[in-house]
Amino acid sequence: MGVTGMRWESRAAGVAMLCLAWAGNHLQAATVVLGEPPRLGTGNCDPFGCPGSFGLGTYQQVFLSTAFPGTISIDGLAFFESQVLSNGGQPAAGTYALSFSYTSFGPGNLNLTSPGANVGSGSQGFFTGALPALTPEGAGNELIITGTPFVYDPADGDLLLTVTVTGAANPGPALYLDEAECGPKTFCPPGTSVVSSNAYFGTINGLPVSGGNSLGGLITEFDYTTVSGNVPEPGSMFLVLAGFAMIAFESRRRRVFRVNARRTGG
After folding, report:
1. Angstrom distances, CA of residue 263 to CA of 76, 206, 254
2. Tell me, what's the pLDDT at 192?
3. pLDDT at residue 178 in the model
4. Low-confidence ranges of the chain (pLDDT < 50)
5. Beta-strand relationship, 207-212 and 196-204
6. What residue segments make up the domains of the chain, in order of their start?
7. What are residue 99's phi and psi, to 5 degrees?
8. For residue 124, what pLDDT is reported?
9. Staple partner for 89: which of 8, 13, 36, 175, CB 3.0–4.6 Å?
10. Strand-by-strand arrangement of the 140-152 sheet
């Protein structure tokens, strides 16, 4: 490689390193748990622990926008089993599809007639497949689900999690995951912050069933990355992208040079 090529690659690598340094300083991984404290001695087996028993097809849970710290990229969820451990339940079998969207129906006000009516803008798939096994955590267990990152801006509305399941079957005892202390819509202990509510839709004996809007739902941990500090100016971002383009160009030029050298015996 000539001197000119070395200079180009060096400059491009320098720009790329600046980009990585900016990302390291501004992207921060964190978690937030919504719905604590749990209701003692009980839990909820929908939608992950007993959908086959109740003909569950769709489960939805809305989370209050003000419970989030700002614009975040959600890449993981965790649900907890700490109250009904003696049951020995495991995640139900079946194919689960989890998606996020915005919604205009806040906690306690989900539409119980049609789950599609609750889904607002920005709907995006997060996870599809069989549920993972429980992970031991402290004195209990966690159900941890990772998926395609979803960028959520609380300024645009409340967050809706939609869970649909097909081929549901309960392999053994039902799994009861921790739910928020608030119970029916009319009851919430003093000092408890209402951050979510849920709704379910299914079919039993061929007849549609639905319910929910309790001021609670599953206690949910969000694993996310947040962006702090100033976003780079468009010109700076152009330089970053140009740096990566320069590296790709130089790498390709070197590959072509080596191929030509082998062809000519040089």
Report:
1. 50, 71, 14
2. 59
3. 93
4. 3, 8, 20, 22-23, 229-231, 251, 254-265
5. antiparallel
6. 3-24+232-264, 35-227
7. -140, 155
8. 98
9. 175
10. 27-34, 220-227, 72-81, 140-152, 135-137
For 51, the token pair is: 């959908």
Amino acid at 179: E
Cα-based torsion angle of the residue sequence 60, 63, 69, 74 in order, rounded to the nearest 10 degrees: 0
Per-residue 3-state assignment (H helix, E strand, C coil) for the chain: CCHHHHHHHHHHHHHHHHHHHHHHHHEEEEEEEECCCECCCCCECCCCCCHHHHCEEEEEEEECHHHCCCCEEEEEEEEEECCCHHHCCCCCEEEEEEEEEEECCCCCCCCCCCHHHHCCCCCEEEEEECCCCCEEECCEEEEEEEEEEEEECHHHCEEEEEEEEEEEECCCCCCCECEECCCCCCCCCCCCCCCEEEEEEEEECCEEEEEECCCCCECEEEEEEEECCCCCCHHHHHHHHHHHHHHHHHHHHHHHHHHHHHHHCC
Closest-CA residue to 44 (of 82, 75, 77): 82
Q: Ramachandran region of residue 167, left (φ > 0), alpha (ψ -120 to 50) or beta?
A: left
Instruction: Indicate left, alpha or beta for 173 from its phi (over 0: left) and psi (-120 to 50: alpha).
Output: beta
pLDDT tens-digit series, residues 61-72 = 999 898 899 999
